[in-house]
Amino acid sequence: MGSLRTVDTERIKEKEHVVQDGMDISGHWNRMFEQRVIWDYPTDLMDKITSLEGGESFGWCYQCGQCVPVCPVDIVGSYGPRKLFRQVQTGMDLLQSPELWKCTTCMNCLRVCPKEVNLIQIMPAVREQAVLEGYVPPELQKMFENCAQYGNPLGESPRKRADWAKNSDVPIPIMSQLNRPVQVLWFVSDYPSYLKRGIDASRALARVFQALGVDFGILGTEEKCDGDSQRLAGEPGLFEELATHNIKMFKKYKFDKVVVTDPHALNAFRKEYPKLGVRFDVEHYTQFLAARLSQLQPMLRKEIRYKVTFHDPCYLGRHNGEYEAPRKLLRGIPGVQFTEMWRCKENGYCCGGGGGGMWLDSFMADHVSERLSERRVREAVETGAEVLAICCPYEVSRFEDAVKSTGNEGRLIVRDIIELIDESMRG
């Protein structure tokens, strides 16, 4: 057993006679110590963050720790605003630290923070400065370059962006060829345009639109990445370049509303594009279809006899407040037995793809015990579900890979909600 620490009596302040509000608190009742050792730390590294536009709230943390147990990265590693604050306070330069890139901007910490320490503003601000100073993971830099050169993070040819529509079994109208207004401008996004599993969902949504008689069109080769993840990863200039292009395309055509496949696009169009001077009615496809469920249900002929659980996308749920539309659709599919994971809705877990995390799996492997997507797959399996339902394009590949890496092939399949609706509709 170590020796007991002695108190430096010189640092004790005690007034011999004090009466406060009629109460005698003389002697040890008013005993205080000098300023705590927290004041002995230099503030220059903290000031580097709080002096940035968007970084101010980082200095508001008072170490209550409510953020840590809800942080998805902490659950598989060690993270959270409280820990970041203390690390910076004791000498870590966040701009040059790997800690800067571990945050997925899932927003769960902000949900519980009594001081509103806002990592959704802090992280983009600090990352922007880090990018300017050349501190950026190589795989993220490659994604930035792909978006700048090709208009998508995959580095695919922009001329091939609408190729998926050519082999669809229903017509996919392209706005530049229609030459007329439409009810719905469908913003397809990157992964649903280029990757096979994303294309599966895109063709399913096109079939459902046609069955409902939705008058829609897509931008096709005129569409570029919405840019929201790039902004959050520290490239606001690239975001503005992509957004300015898309806004120019939107202004070419007349439509009643925009329907998006990707919650990240929903977030960009609702919250960031208006800052660039354009506003329009925008819905995620689950919101659009949930409002038409009474029309859709009579077309759902086949029972889908699966036990299904659902993963809330952070950018549909916490960022944009939509929890019920996906669940309404799942419960409306005949035969589906729906079950919740214990972390759901407001406290839903993160797939790891937000805030640039989609392109940082190799980087994160050195900092966590398992990928966030792997932890989430384990939670889905614990429910006894046969299907993990999703409605964000980032999640299909992330969770399908995680199913394999956790040894759950044959036990759990990953399906976009629209694929389940389409399967029931096609009979």
Which keywords apply here?
9% strand, 12 strands, Rossmann fold, 4-stranded parallel sheet, alpha/beta, 427 residues, globular, 20 helices, Fumarate Reductase Iron-sulfur Protein, Chain B, domain 2, single chain, 3 domains
Give me the secondary-structure topology:
Elements: E1 12-13, E2 19-20, E3 23-24, E4 32-33, H1 44-50, H2 72-76, H3 81-89, H4 108-112, H5 119-132, H6 138-150, H7 163-166, H8 175-178, E5 182-187, H9 191-194, H10 196-212, E6 216-218, H11 228-232, H12 236-252, E7 255-260, H13 263-272, E8 282-284, H14 285-290, H15 293-296, E9 307-310, H16 324-332, E10 337-338, H17 361-364, H18 372-382, E11 387-390, H19 393-405, E12 413-416, H20 417-426
Parallel strand pairs: 5-6, 5-7, 7-8, 9-10, 9-11, 11-12
Antiparallel strand pairs: 1-4, 2-3
Q: Could you please describe the fold and organization of this structure?
A:
This protein has 427 residues and is α/β, with parallel strands linked by helices. Helix 10 crosses helix 20 and helix 18 packs across helix 19. The longest helix has 17 residues. It is globular and about 85 Å long.
Compute the number of helices.
Answer: 20
Beta percentage is 5-15%
Q: What is the number of domains?
A: 3
The biggest beta sheet is recorded as:
4 strands, parallel
What is the CATH topology classification name of the largest domain? Answer: Rossmann fold
Show unreliable segments: none
- End-to-end CA span: 72 Å
The CATH class of the largest domain turns out to be Alpha Beta
Structural shape: globular
The chain-level structural class is alpha/beta
Task: Report the count of strand segments.
Answer: 12
Order of strands across the widest beta sheet? 6-5-7-8
Instruction: Average the pLDDT over all residues and give the rounded result.
Output: 94
CATH architecture label of the largest domain: 3-Layer(aba) Sandwich
